[in-house]
Amino acid sequence: MKPSSPLFPADHFTALADIARTLGHAHRLALLEHIAQEERSVEQLAQLSGVSVANASQHLQQLKRAGIVQTRRDGKRVLYSLGAGPVTPLLEALRGFLAFQHAEIREVALDSLSRRERLEGISIEELLMQMQSQSVVLLDVRPEDEFASGHLPGALNIPAQALQQRLAELPKGKHVVAYCRGPYCVLSTDAINTLHAHGLPARRLRAGFDDWKAAGLSVEQPPARLEK
């Protein structure tokens, strides 16, 4: 019996392993997350990521050699942005898998009723209808820097870890719809649990900001900063 031919040549998996090795460092992933928000200089990226400029520069050069980031010169500054390939979906896939793992671990500790409550949520279509009637308040529970880079129209930003202390900021008499990055993001789940514990009506958006944006729906962003 003849051995079956391989689905992919050996060098295919070698190339995949090279990409995985390039991404396999916490500092590089942190740098990529900040670059995904907006184009930034190495000095900005070093400060945001909590590493030295020299260290950030070394990691960025490795990402650049792999085509994961690219650069352009703006006067004396070199600005980094994501590469031309599908880098954003790759980052989303990594975030989604991590969030899925966390969600799976947490679900083991929940009874069936709590589990249903977590998994059920409002769809984008339902949310659009409720937004027209102005019967809901959108609660973005992502960190402030992510909210500032883009959010659902009219959303209020209260990061999940601060919600307990800032419940009074929520408008009275409105149903809350909380959202974060995507369907497996546990931040919105934490927010719903907090709101329910205080007797507040709330549901989570089954999708998240990334899915909303990918659907081509309206996104609010801060005005562009003017360079002095």
Automatic annotation (TrEMBL):
<dbReference type="GO" id="GO:0003677">
    <property type="term" value="F:DNA binding"/>
</dbReference>
<dbReference type="GO" id="GO:0003700">
    <property type="term" value="F:DNA-binding transcription factor activity"/>
</dbReference>
<dbReference type="InterPro" id="IPR001845">
    <property type="entry name" value="HTH_ArsR_DNA-bd_dom"/>
</dbReference>
<feature type="domain" description="Rhodanese">
    <location>
        <begin position="132"/>
        <end position="221"/>
    </location>
</feature>
<dbReference type="InterPro" id="IPR001307">
    <property type="entry name" value="Thiosulphate_STrfase_CS"/>
</dbReference>
<dbReference type="Pfam" id="PF12840">
    <property type="entry name" value="HTH_20"/>
</dbReference>
<dbReference type="Pfam" id="PF00581">
    <property type="entry name" value="Rhodanese"/>
</dbReference>
<keyword id="KW-0804">Transcription</keyword>
<protein>
    <submittedName>
        <fullName>Metalloregulator ArsR/SmtB family transcription factor</fullName>
    </submittedName>
</protein>
<dbReference type="InterPro" id="IPR001763">
    <property type="entry name" value="Rhodanese-like_dom"/>
</dbReference>
<dbReference type="InterPro" id="IPR036873">
    <property type="entry name" value="Rhodanese-like_dom_sf"/>
</dbReference>
<feature type="domain" description="HTH arsR-type">
    <location>
        <begin position="8"/>
        <end position="102"/>
    </location>
</feature>
<dbReference type="InterPro" id="IPR036390">
    <property type="entry name" value="WH_DNA-bd_sf"/>
</dbReference>
<dbReference type="GO" id="GO:0004792">
    <property type="term" value="F:thiosulfate-cyanide sulfurtransferase activity"/>
</dbReference>
<keyword id="KW-0238">DNA-binding</keyword>
<dbReference type="InterPro" id="IPR011991">
    <property type="entry name" value="ArsR-like_HTH"/>
</dbReference>
<keyword id="KW-0805">Transcription regulation</keyword>
<dbReference type="InterPro" id="IPR036388">
    <property type="entry name" value="WH-like_DNA-bd_sf"/>
</dbReference>
<dbReference type="InterPro" id="IPR051011">
    <property type="entry name" value="Metal_resp_trans_reg"/>
</dbReference>
